[in-house]
């Protein structure tokens, strides 16, 4: 079901504001996010640059899938997004960065998913040769590319996944994925 800036699926509701990423994920009546998800871009000489633009425009809504298109700007960089929300709650992001007239240098681009601590007590990361799993704990954890990461409690959680890391340009190959615990949240950072 699509209503303005929200999409509801099987037991879950996603809500957007004016940015490309969800600001709220409600699952079984509970908010999963401690803060809005962010696609963070760092342009040459600047710390973090915010994306500006309109809320996603829902161009398709059927019982199986809703699709939105968005266009956002950070400095002289344009982000074109196609976001699909499937009936089972899977979000698929297809993102394209387009340089403006000044062709800014992108020093860093990463996705941050800040989950409430109570919904991210455990982790499971698929690594070559098996999985690494256990309690999140108090110390940050870094991983090279892994096709999926689960952050969850005994009832709720999320899974981030990607088929491959083609075209990722990482200065530190061992820190493509990070789990960063805090007092009230656990942040999954995906360094693109």
Defining key terms:
192 residues; globular
In words, what does this structure look like?
This protein is an all-beta fold and 192 residues long. The protein has strands at 2-3, 6-9, 12-15, 24-27, 30-31, 38-43, 52-53, 57-61, 65-74, 77-86, 91-99, 106-116, 122-127, 130-135, 141-143, 148-152, 157-161, 177-181, 185-191. The chain has a 5-stranded antiparallel β-sheet with strand order 1-2-3-4-5, with no helix packed on it. The model has no long low-confidence stretch (mean pLDDT 90).
Low-confidence stretches: none
Question: What letter string, H or E per element, gives the SSE order?
Answer: EEEEEEEEEEEEEEEEEEE
* Number of continuous helical runs: 0
In order across it, which strands form the biggest sheet? 1-2-3-4-5
Characterize the largest beta sheet: strand count, sense, and whether it forms a barrel: 5 strands, antiparallel
- Amount of helix: under 10%
Q: Give me the Rg, rounded.
A: 17 Å
Principal-axes shape call: globular
Mean pLDDT: 90
* Proportion in β-strands: over 45%
Distance between the termini: 31 Å
What structural category characterises the helix and strand content? mainly beta
Number of strands: 19
List the helices and strands and how they pair.
Layout: E1 2-3, E2 6-9, E3 12-15, E4 24-27, E5 30-31, E6 38-43, E7 52-53, E8 57-61, E9 65-74, E10 77-86, E11 91-99, E12 106-116, E13 122-127, E14 130-135, E15 141-143, E16 148-152, E17 157-161, E18 177-181, E19 185-191
